[in-house]
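Researcher: Re-running this chain for the archive, since the previous output was lost when a drive failed. Same request as before.
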Amino acid sequence: MILFLFPMSRKSRAQNVIRQHMLYSLATGFIPIPLVDIGATTWVQMRMLKKLCEIYDQPFEIHQLRALISALTTSLAARMGASLLKIIPGVGNIGGGLSMGVLSAALTYALGDFFVFHFEQGGTLENVNVEQGKAYIESKFKEGVEKAKAMKDQSNIKEKLQLLKELKEEGLITDEEYEKKRKQLIEQL
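Model: Regenerated structure tokens:
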């Protein structure tokens, strides 16, 4: 069999970068120290934008990107609220982690999607219209929340499949029970 390898388009490569960094952003939500999670998310977003700049042959200027991220991200207050929720003993760490991770991943998605759109239209870092960017990011944020929730759910399914496999290997469930539950979990994907 002959396989033809087609190079991925810039947009496809950029979308893969965004997905990868959404996963990183989901993970930053579980950093238990308030406000440190926001710094980690910002670092993830900077890293993502650096990779997008490389894909679109844009010069990467860290100070310029930091200023653009700050200007474009209008949901910092919500992110701060989720981060500070972690201060509440017990529930705070779990609830704050879940909401912070989803919010961070959604914002990472919206920010990345905006830059891909901007670069695909021939834009550069020099000609970003901040007001239009804010509107674009706000319009994509809800879509990002849904994508982030789906990613979180899929990672939970992977964990359940791994646990199911371990239960079968340890002889705690039968082959039939394993297959039945495995099929149910895979249908959720």
